[in-house]
Each structure stands twice: as C-alpha cells, then as structure tokens.
Amino acid sequence: xxxxxxxxxxxxxxxFQADDLQVRQEFNLSEDELGVSPDQKTKFIATTPESTPxxxxxxxxxxxxxSGIFLLAIADDLVPNYGWDDQxxxxxxxxxxxxxxxxxxxxxxxxxxxxxSSDILPRHPMLTRALYGSxxxxxxxxxxxxxxxxxxxxxxxxxxxxxDARSVQLHHAVGPILDSSGNLLCGCSEARAMRxxxxxxxxxxxxxxxxxxxxxxxxxxxxxxxxxxxxxSGTIANQILAFSAHQKGSQTRALHxxxxxxxxxxxxxxxxxxLTQKLVVFLLRN
Length: 286
Prior knowledge:
Layout (H helix, E strand, L loop, with lengths): L11 E6 L3 H7 L6 E3 L5 E6 L7 H10 L5 E3 L5 E3 L3 H9 L8 E5 L3 H4 L13 E3 H7 L12 H11 L3 E11 L26 H6 L2 H11 L4 H8 L5 H11 L8 H10 L5 H17 L1
Parallel strand pairs: 1-3, 6-8
Antiparallel strand pairs: 2-3, 4-7, 5-8, 6-7
Helix pairs in contact: 10-11
C-alpha cells in the first residue's frame, strides 16, 4: 500500500493460515476468521490449516473477499516499485472489462543480474474481474504449490487472454524481502542479496508438490508442454507472448504457435536451430 501512488484506490486483501499468530500480531488483527484491520486498510480472511501448504488456498481466499476491477497476487517475499498501481493502470486499464491476465516482471531479482531477458511465466499474475469470474480462482486449486503459473500460461496462450505487462516490476527475494531497517534484500543490489530460501520457500518447492504439478500438467498435449518449457527461453519466449497477443480467435493451437516461431522474422536462424534441438530432445524425453 505504501508503494502505491493512489493507495486510496487500492484494496488490500490479506489471507493467511488461521494458526499464523505472527501475521495477526504484525497487522494487529483480531482472532476472527473474517474482518478488517484496526486501521481499516486491510480486509483479512483466515484459512483452515491442512496437511498441505497454504499458499494457493490463501491467494484464492483473498480473492473471494476482494471487490476490485483488477486482482494482483502478491506474496510476502515481494515488494512492488513505487507507483506500481499507476503503471499497471496505464498498461492494462484500457482492457479492464475484458477477460485478461497480465504477465508482470516477477522473477527473483538475483536471477536478473545474470539473465538477459525476463521470462513469460505468470508467477504472480494480475487478472481482470471478468477473467476471475470465469475461472473462479487466482490459482487453480488442483495444484498445491508449484504449477498453477504454468497452467495460467497455457490457458492464456490457448485462449488468447494473456498479455505483457513486464514493464512493471515486483522485487522478488530469495529469503526475506526486507531487512530490519526496511532495506530491500531482493538482489537488485547484490551486496544485500539473501541467497538462502526461507523454510516456507523450501516446502513450496519440495519434490512431492513438483510431482503433483507434473501429474496435473500431463492433461496438456506434448506440444503444449513443450511450449511451457520455453517460458524462460528469452527471445523465443518473447515471441510466443507477442504472437498470442495478436490472435483474434477464441482459441489457438499449440502447433500454430510453434509454426509462428519458425515463420518469425524476429528470430534468427540460430534461434530456430536451437528451438528445433529443444523440440527433438523434449519429444524424445516425453
């Protein structure tokens, strides 16, 4: 909220596991399941503890108590740039009543020191109310931790509703996002970067939940899963996102996306050779 240019237009909806006393103390929240913080700036909802991590349950619960035109998923290891709300409005406002999902720059900051291009995986997407109403969730609840961003990418490419808002940056940390003085630990300044994951980050990426994600994603054909594997491939990934944004039909086939890459004048011959190599290896393994 403090990083918003127009905080009076931002609705902060906080969802957390009911037995998380640290969150209640930090925001001075009551023991109720549903309520508003004493300063009236935060609506909150507590979710019931289960045997699985609560991240997706919490995001979806927070969405249920929201009322805004846009829904933006932010975790406790992210901080947006100042004026993020104004930036998003300028990029996305004209399509606010359409079924849309935007990819924002949200990869961990420490990785951006070595990677030349951002990826297109919507880890922390922004949705319109129209798209949320169509699906009924921020993240598909059939996933436990990892994987729902891959699901959104494939759904968005197939149904042509994913768009590019990577000009807006969320600072994303490995470990805590802020130190005790409020300084960023995200990795934009490598001297302050934390390199050890928190306990919750390690749980989220455990092998058990990765296997659940792989099982869910098998419903997509092999070509769609190959396209998903290209989400971090720089120039190729950028072309995939650009192609999708210009499609006018209700659905696009995976084969059409792949053919568009080979026809693209933006991709050099070496990119197309690399694409072919990746495809052959992927098909042999799958």
